[in-house]
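User: Sequence in, structure out. Go.
Assistant: Echoing your sequence, followed by the structure tokens.
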Amino acid sequence: MVKKIITTVSVISFFTLTNLCIAQVLSIGIKPEKTYINTPTPFYHEIKPGDQQKGNILIFNSGQEPIEIEVYAVDSFITNDQKLAYKLINDEQEQVGKWVTFNENIHLLEPGEEKTVEYQIELPENTEYKTYLGGFGIQESNPETIEGTINNVYRYINGISIKSTDNPVAPVEQTPPETNYWPIVYFGASLIITLIAIVVIFLKYKK
């Protein structure tokens, strides 16, 4: 009986922790200021070695409480089972995580707030010509810790690609499709004509 109660409590605790993790991860995030066509990651740059570029990210807090967050860039790597993963914020960065910097890393986001943050990319001279993958990360800057318990810090990562090339080409921005108003106009005109015809027929038979 005791064993069964312990198991039940453990299961309940697991799902509660899982829900809290999901809620916290989804309450903050990063997205591009613009979207592009046929790019390998949401953020994409083609840069000549030795040059610099600037860009913007949008960070947001969709939660109900204000939160102080830290934004940063990290390298990616391939795991033993051939999956893409990202280094942690305090790991040594050698490529993307080293080349990308922010004017300001710490930001206070109010509930529902969205903020634009500028970043810079400085590609070193003699960088090998290929595409480098990394990620933009966002996480709580001063998470609450409780002594004697496991204290996890949850982060949100969005991918960035940097292509080293002597002939950089700007990505093509995806524009929203133009709204076609003709169906609305046609429907409105047809409705007016139908109503006029009904009124004419009604007046004719009323006489």
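User: And one key feature?
Assistant: The radius of gyration is 27 Å.
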